[in-house]
Design brief:
- With 165 residues, the chain is α/β, with parallel strands linked by helices.
- The protein is built from 4 helices and 5 strands.
- The protein has helices spanning 29-40, 94-97, 106-116, 145-161; strands at residues 15-20, 47-52, 68-75, 84-87, 123-129.
- A 5-stranded mixed β-sheet has the order 2-1-3-5-4, with helices on one face.
- It starts with 14 loop residues before the first strand and ends with a helix.
Length: 165
């Protein structure tokens, strides 16, 4: 629904899209996706896009209870390379939650976020299945055109409609 001032009605609060990863192999998918999405959505003033080395780095940003969180990370064992899966906190597979080897893992970080009452407007995780032989020189999110469109559409749907926790 459009407001009288011409702006689209959007969920309240700010949206954060964080790509989790590292500069190595398939683990770079979260970072590459965040960079690609940041470029594609650079006109959005309701969105902050950043790369995180570890989940707890999200606390380096000035987040508030009414904000929303979308984390993009590489995953294994959920389908062929490039498969996209959207998870709520309750749906996050325990194996995927333990992917981080740096400090507090994704599940622990998100449990802390909930305990602190942050991101009450919604939290989602998008996993991108990494290729088994992810090349170090990979420069795209590792998605074909159709998968990239689905990722972009999923993020736009999240931004414009909002997701509850």
């Amino acid at each position: 629904m459009a407001r009288q001032d011409g702006a689209n009605d959007r969920p309240e609060g700010h949206a954060y899209l964080f790509g989790l990863g590292s500069p190595h192999g398939g683990d770079r998918l979260g970072w590459l996706a965040a960079e690609w999405l940041g470029d594609a959505l650079r006109e959005r003033d309701d969105l902050t896009v950043a790369r995180l080395d570890q989940p707890v780095d999200l606390f380096l940003h000035a987040v508030a209870p009414g904000d929303r969180l979308l984390m993009v990370d590489a995953m294994r064992g959920q389908g062929p390379p490039g498969t996209l899966k959207v998870f709520t906190l309750a749906e996050l597979p325990s194996a995927a939650a333990r992917l981080s080897s740096h400090g507090l893992d994704l599940a622990g970080t998100l449990a802390l976020v909930e305990a602190l009452g942050l991101f009450r407007a919604g939290i989602r995780i998008i996993g991108i299945e990494m290729p088994a032989d992810a090349a170090p020189e990979m420069t795209a999110p590792g998605l074909d055109e159709a998968q990239a469109r689905r990722l972009h559409a999923a993020v736009l749907g999240w931004l414009d409609a909002g997701w509850g926790s």
